[in-house]
Amino acid sequence: MDVDKMDINSLKSQFSKYKKDLLDLNKYMYENPELGYQEIKSVNKITKLIKKHTADAKFKKFTDIPTAFTASINNKPRKENITICIEYDALPNVGHACGHNLISSIGLGAFFILSNYINDLDYEIKLVGCPAEEIIPLTYENGGGGGKIKLLNQGAFDNTAYSVMIHPATRNEVDPLMIAVKQIDIEYFGKAAHASGSAYVGKNALDAQILAYNNISALRQQLQSVEKVHGIITHGGESPNIIPDYTRSSWMIRAQKTKDLNRLEKKIINCFKGAAESTGCKLNIVEGNGTYENLVTDKKLKSIFMENSKKLSLDMKTNESYDQSKNGSTDFGNISKQVPSLHAFLQIVDDDGKIVNHQPEFAHATVTKRATDMIETGSVLLASTILDL
User: Fold this and answer.
1) What residues does CATH 3.30.70.360 cover in the chain?
2) pTM, whole model, 2 decimals?
3) How far are the Cα atoms of 52, 68, 358 from residue 366, in angstroms, in the given order?
4) What is the pLDDT of residues 173-201, one digit of tens each?
């Protein structure tokens, strides 16, 4: 089905039936942010909306991932499906500062629009509810992220022909070069002692963390612009008059591609080992829920999405137009290595550096008129792209 300008207007007309509910959902999630694997309220709201607007949708739950689900529509059984991924987890302290409330609203909007074109679909359409995209320290009960990695391993993307989603950002970009990332937490075990009376008896686990941090800071001079490592100390000791015998930190290691990440990780681990050896502390490395692979954008999806952006008078650009040293990461990259995929950006704030993702200001921007107007644009873009497939 070639979606021309007239059909685009038809898709917009279909969207209008769902607009109020989608804007209400977006605002509700903004006001009630939930961390990864704990998005119970958000998932309840989302599934209620699906049942309201697509009564024939077939649901699947995952017993060991309570806030993950799939919902499928089609007029008859199909061997292959197209997945629309949505995310709904927030960040600690800054809420929906990555705009996952908009991701959910846009994905649902496309899903609802497509339910009106069931006879035009050559594929089953599957909405995949993906928890825990954000990586947060493993000290959190729900830490580690990687919801899509778990869903991949459990077959949620089996028989998937294409997978798509839209993410709010500071720019319109069809094919961002989201980079690979690995999460590790670092524990040092030393020996406690009186910090004044007999410090020489102790082994200072906080010194080990500080040395490791400084080792990595020195290493940054030799890193390429797309290679990054950043971390925080999540536990630094119990009291200033006790030599810390246990400390912990949380780190992310990033590189342009997964193979480059594996090489960089070895250098970072040597920084931690060196700190352990110089302080006499024992090192323990705690790994997260798998490596987030670099994103690969499918050429066919890119072409169709760009054409439909023009029909909506949207100034969509490719990654050549932007500084790719500024990119983040996503576990959608793992999907893109197995399935033809598209993870496009839609702009909700000016690209002037005043407001960026992972700031409280970005969370506030998700409920502005500029952002909520983008719910319609994103929904229609995804729906039209899928219809063109």
Assistant:
1) 180-287
2) 0.95
3) 24, 23, 12
4) 999 999 999 999 999 999 999 999 999 99
